[in-house]
Amino acid sequence: MFNKVKYQGELWFPDFPDQRCFCILSIVDNKIELETNLVSPDRYSQKNVYPLIFGIFNGLGCLTFVDCKLGSDSTGMIRSAIYIPKYCFNHIEHIVNPKNLQINRFRVAGIGLGKWINLKFEFDKSLLKTNNEVTHNFDIQELGLQIKLNSWITSSVSHEQISLKKSGNIEFSFFSPINVKELLDYYTKAKKLIQFLNGKSGKFSFFNFKCSQHEDWSAIYFKELIFKDSTFEYLSIDFDKISDHLPLLFTKMFTDEKFYFCVNRLLDNQVEGQLTHSKRFTNSISTFEGYCKLNIETKNLKLRNFLKKNQHDILTLSGINEEYFDEFCSKIISSRDYYVHANIKNNNIFSDFELLYISFLLDILVAFNLLKQIEVPQDILKMIIYRARETYNGMQSFNRELSKDTFFDH
């Protein structure tokens, strides 16, 4: 939608269409900022958020800005303001009023699908052949929904080289129209599922939709939640191996509150930004306990009991000796009590370095059990077990050597 950092145009309030003011639209940290001398006609207004502001901009067409927070308001000979809208709707020819939109279709590109969906390159008599487009589509009848996952290759030619680029999008078509809130909910859950399965997603490059009021495409822009790529790709599942199970996975994500809760909590540790090892560990403990309370029928809701009921999977994923399991559980519980309940007199805790790998193990354990609910192929589960052991044993041992500290390790 935005190909440049700055655009020029004019703004007006819906109730005062004849009072239009110049504006510079800027993209700052994926947010829209509107710098303008359009201000409230009421000089003493205490309003901090404006529900709707309309605009026309060169190279973009007609824009509707929603929930515009007043970032600053300077007074003087000429009043000026900076607005930061939460959402922006765009159509090349007319203003979009988002309040009563009835959306039939939407499609989103740039969230990692191009790299995830496999497109093959083959050589034939010195010629490079490509399968230019791949489409996977399926229906979710109970939601009146069809989903298409598209991947394609674009090419560019110069005097020196031929460049090929993989791209992809996801498209939703609804038997009955939905509103904007439902559209955003479907998109958010779909992106989180892709992040959960692939270990990476990315920002959208465009977000278009069609509604019953108009035949052509409109667009929406907002600052979305960004996930960082998984440092250890224990759950980077090959698309071809999981594709047959995607209809059930999407259905679970959209309709099963327990499944969505667990996936959503797992992704807390993948949101862009820096987490301390202890914070990551407490996130993982909370997610693990939440999963167990929702999926294990037991009256004993203590952490030790949950660990005991998952003993087989913990041993399988970590490779630790069974004789060490009780001590291992005690140390997890003591570490939880230390960081969550401030039980600072307890010395039987994991080091800050070890907490990172305990966190990885607990996250893998929850993801492993969620996928077993879907009855994914055994080779996927075996791959997760292999990567989990490589992370917990091999990677931990290697990084322990690298992180040695002369002063603090004794």
Detail the topology: elements first, then pairings:
Blueprint: E1 6-12, E2 21-28, E3 31-36, E4 49-57, E5 61-74, E6 80-91, E7 103-109, H1 113-116, E8 121-124, E9 127-130, E10 133-140, E11 145-157, E12 162-178, H2 180-198, E13 206-211, E14 214-222, H3 239-242, H4 246-255, H5 257-266, H6 277-295, H7 303-309, H8 311-318, H9 325-340, H10 352-374, H11 378-402
Antiparallel strand pairs: 1-2, 1-4, 2-3, 3-6, 4-5, 5-6, 6-14, 7-12, 7-13, 8-9, 10-11, 11-12, 13-14
| C-alpha-based Rg, rounded | 26 Å
* Content-based structural category: alpha+beta
Care to count the β-strands? Answer: 14
Domains, number: 3
- pLDDT averaged over residues: 89
Quaternary organization: single chain
Overall outline: globular
The share of residues in extended strands comes to 25-35%
Strands side by side in the biggest sheet: 1-2-3-6-5-4
In angstroms, what separates the terminal alpha carbons? Answer: 56 Å
Largest beta sheet, briefly? 6 strands, antiparallel, barrel
Specify the number of helices. 11
Order of helices and strands: EEEEEEEHEEEEEHEEHHHHHHHHH
| Helical residue percent band | 25-40%
Question: Runs with pLDDT <50, length 5+?
Answer: none
